[in-house]
Amino acid sequence: MKIQYIGQYLIKNSKKSIKFKLKRMKLLSKIVLGSIVLAQFFWSCKTEDNSDAMDSSFITLSAEDNFPYMVEQFADLKVLRYQIPGWENLTLKEQKLVYYLTKAGLSGRDMMWDQNYRHNLTIRKALESIYINFNGDKSTPEWAAFEVYMKRVWFSNGIHHHYSNAKMKPGFSSEYLTSVLAATNTVLTGEAFDVIFNDKDAKKVNQAKDVDNVASSAVNFYGPNVTNGDVESFYSNISSPDPKRPLSHGLNSQLVKVNGELQERVYKSGGLYGEAIDEIVKWLELAKGVAENQAQGDALGLLIQYYNTGDLQIWDDYNVAWTAATEGNIDYINSFIEVYNDPLGYRGSYETIVQIKDFDMSAKMAVLSKNAQWFEDNSPLFPEHKKKNVVGVSYKTVNVAGEAGDASPTTPIGVNLPNANWIRAEVGSKSVSLGNIINAYNNSGSSGRLKEFVNDDQEYELEKKYGQLADKLHTALHEVVGHASGQLNPGVGETKETLKNYASTLEEGRADLVGLYYLYSPKLQELGLVSDWKAVGTAAFDGYIRNGLMTQLIRLNLGDDVEEAHMRNRQWVSTWAYEKGLKDNVIEKVTRNGKTYFNINDYEKLHDLFGELLRETQRIKSEGDFAAVQALVEGYGVKVNQEIHAEVLERNKQFKSAAYGGFVNPVLVPQTNPEGEITSIEVNYVKSFEGQMLNYSKNYSFLPEVN
């Protein structure tokens, strides 16, 4: 499970002497992209791999410079940089481990593109060919629109918006695309061309009620003519060797019909995506050779076996080993993991995050892990839904060193894995907060939107003083305590089976509620995490309600329903609390000078309401109550108050900061001696978004256009 960054409403808004050098490099080519020159170089010395050094468009800083977090902004998107604090404190062996894991992650990048939509790789190749080779008039509105569309496609790993799931509409005509295709001798025909402009495959993931979610979703997890009923029937006939430890059936495959019969195409070496998987394995083998300890090396070995075989039992064995491997400074996430992009919650999207431990913050936050049982025992859940023995919950603040797939360019700010309920119960889980990602967000925003939507000066000052701390603690409580809490009733199936298309949003809302419930608690002050628990809790409640009822609506077009799981959960939590508190005026809707605000009048009662809703969401999950989750989500989380939405959009027009943020990755460049041995690894930061994206397409494209 992961927490997404949602603008300043969730994360509200060591300088170092950095020297960036290009050593012993040889000019290969120059490509003029509008007014941007991308110079490509390679290392003349021998290295294990020199592909990442080929984007030489690196920034250069002096000791006096502030780090330039902002790369560029377009459409509703901003692209940022993040630093890697503490890199110089790692040993060479640790740096190699990070480097190999990062290369492994990037090698699977194209799998995510293909998973997102069957024509994505074909479309991307054509668009990039135009982008690189077009020598016509680049001063026209059509070319400007083409550039924006290209960047939006890069940002979203395909033609559907990364967050709303709606197909992105280009600002140029089909006639213009035809002309630039011809001008660059680029071929794009048939359905892959038409779909850019027509109304087909309009939603990557369709979670709507009373539709066939599989058939109406463009995501490439299922073949043509596969339906909800097909999926449910197929997996109802598959059992696990140990019913108490169910395998994650469907996680690493595509479900298709062959001669009318349903079959899985498994992601593995020699199977679907085998070409990319073989590259991943190559780099994982090198990573295993420099593992920090036996446990870490054993886990990497199991991950390699899983990629080679596609065996879901080995996947579970790997997750048990990975969860237990808590020692060391380096950790990683790699494989087909989160199921948000599957409308029925079976199939995992490819992602990878390479992490370096933040020692100072991890020590401060470890107290949550140590007290996980206290939080479980004192939660408002029904006694039968509480875990009697919360085990193995580890929490670290980490600094990201590289991301790919579903974690890039957009990235979560917190992650809790593994997702299997039985592993959480028997072995535990790992929770991480991505410290340098949060820091980059915090240093790249402004307070303008906050001033516009807070009810009064007191709310504003509380947010400015305590908002960032409140959000860090909410992330930690969400991941460490939230996802690890509660248990299913005996005999109740996995939530993807019982709660179906509502499983993801219920789980995210449940974890949010755990965080909210304990954010307004003197226990945090007792544990030394805050100096004023009531002020921190008040700021947290203000921010959550403000976002859930109003400010997150800047992400939607007027008239749209809420589709994305995290947005749905924030709305149903906030709206339920607002409506249930009306009789006591817990949350007051205020109209002033033609503007709407929501003001919390009674934080104690709101805390109780959050506890009541948490108890109910856990009951729904524990009992597998589909009717109840459907009523909750559809009743409170899907439909939008159109009057308020129109007002929010109008008030937001004055702000130029983009609603969504993502990142370019640092570039790790190995330095070698004459024998080709790595002697050090430098961290470089790219100048441009398009430079990194073109570099990735050149050096990490291991799949055919059609898979």
Helix content: 40-55%
The separation of the N and C termini measures 28 Å
Number of strands: 17
Radius of gyration: 25 Å
Structural class: alpha+beta
Work out the helix count. Answer: 25
Shape: globular
Query: What kind of sheet is the major sheet?
Result: 6 strands, mixed
DSSP strand content: 15-25%
Structural account:
The protein is an alpha+beta fold and 707 residues long. Among the domains are: 2-11 and 358-660, no CATH class; 120-158 and 168-194, no CATH class. It is 43% helix and 16% strand. It contains 25 helices and 17 strands. A 6-stranded mixed sheet has the order 1-11-12-10-9-8. Strand 13 and strand 14 (595-600) form a beta hairpin. Helix 16 crosses helix 20 (533-549). The longest helix has 26 residues, at 457-482. The chain is globular, with a radius of gyration of 25 Å. The two termini are 28 Å apart.
Give a summary of the structure in a few sentences.
The chain contains 25 helices and 17 strands.
Q: Keywords for this structure?
A:
alpha+beta, 3-stranded mixed beta sheet, 707 residues, 6-stranded mixed beta sheet, 25 helices
